[in-house]
Amino acid sequence: MTDSQLEQLSRRLRRFAQERDWEQFHSPKNLSMALIAECAELVEHFQWLTEEQSHDLPDDKRVEVELEMADIQIYLLRLAERLGVDLLGAVERKIAINEHKYPADRVRGSAKKYTEYE
Question: Which tens digits make up the pLDDT trace of 100-118?
C-alpha cells in the first residue's frame, strides 16, 4: 500500500466516522481498546488449530479472518490519524530498529529475543 493509498483510506474512514457523528467516540483510548478487541477476535479463529491447519483455512474461515484483519487495519489507521502518526514512516523506522537488533547473520533460523543474542 502506498502512502497515497493509505492517506486516501484514512480520509475515507474519517469521513465515514464524521457522517455518523462518531468522531466523539474515536479517542485514542477507545480506538486502541477497539483495536485490541479486534486482534482478540482474529486470534480466536486460530485458537486450537495446528500449525498446518492455520496455513490451510477453509474458504469461509478465510473470509472471516480477512474481515477481522480489515477491522484491525481500520482501527489502526483511525488511531494513527487521531494521534497524527505517520504510520508508514513509523513502520520504516521500526524495520530499521529491528534490522539493527536482529542482524540476519546472527539470528537466522532462531526465534530468540534480541536480548538473548548479546
Answer: 999 999 999 998 888 887 6
The pLDDT tens digits for 32-58 are 999 999 999 999 999 999 999 999 999
Q: Give exposure, 95-113, as e/b (b: 16+ Cβ within 10 Å).
A: eeeeeeeeeeeeeeeeeee
Alpha carbon distance 64, 87 (integer Å): 25
Q: How crowded is residue 81: how many other Cβ atoms within 10 Å of its Cβ?
A: 20
Q: In CATH, what is the architecture of 3-82?
A: Orthogonal Bundle (1.10)
Distance CA 98, CA 61 (A): 32
CA 42 to CA 45: how far, in whole Å?
A: 6
The overall pTM is greater than 0.85: yes
Domain locations in the chain as residue ranges? 3-82, 86-118
Q: How far is Cα of residue 102 from the mean position of the Cα atoms in its chain?
A: 21
Angle between helices 87-101 and 3-19 (to 10 degrees): 130
